[in-house]
Amino acid sequence: MTARAGAPRLVRPLLVAFLVVAAVDLAGLLAGVQTAHLVAKPLLMPLLAACVAVRGGPGLLVVALLCGWGGDVLLMPDSEVAFLAGMGCFAAGHVCYLLLFGRAGLRPVTGLAYAAVLVAFLVFLWPGLPGDLRIPLTGYGLLLSAMAWRAGALGRCAAIGGALFLLSDALIATGIADRPQLPAHDFWIMLTYLAAQYLLTRGALGGPVDSTGAAPGAYRERSIRI
To answer: What is the DSSP letter of 151?
Structure first.
């Protein structure tokens, strides 16, 4: 289905709204104002998904972002059940990204590098991980690393986005395993996560998110129809 007439005019306001809400969220984390984070976080991925939808971007990209929204919401409560459900939502989003990226541009050397990083990080975390989370986190790490590797098929922006997604979740994992954490730890988790989702979106669209014309690249046709 093509985007409705006039809908592209909404892309830029939606993107501005995403950036404003992201700034509120990050500022709230830095200032220790938890209410700002609780209000802003659930709005972020729906706004970015709306940008993609009204621009006529790939349906799989919209679904991936909405899976991210489900993960964001489910990770907010302090509950192991909600955490596992949220991880499942993010895993579903990574599957959507992998389907979107396709099989073009495979680079085995990059894949091996991601595999080595994953193994080294798991060895670092393993002693501190709760026993019932070790297997789920390992499986999730494999899927996330595959997504980060495959993101390079869409160019530099998506490749950086995939790497930042891996970094963001690695920062979360250090907290779970009670490993040393950065100052303002939650701020860096959200900053890298938001940058990752934006850059993956930009890479999948083949150009800036607020562009309404057909973008160059492998997904030109899907950037104007959903």
So the answer is: G
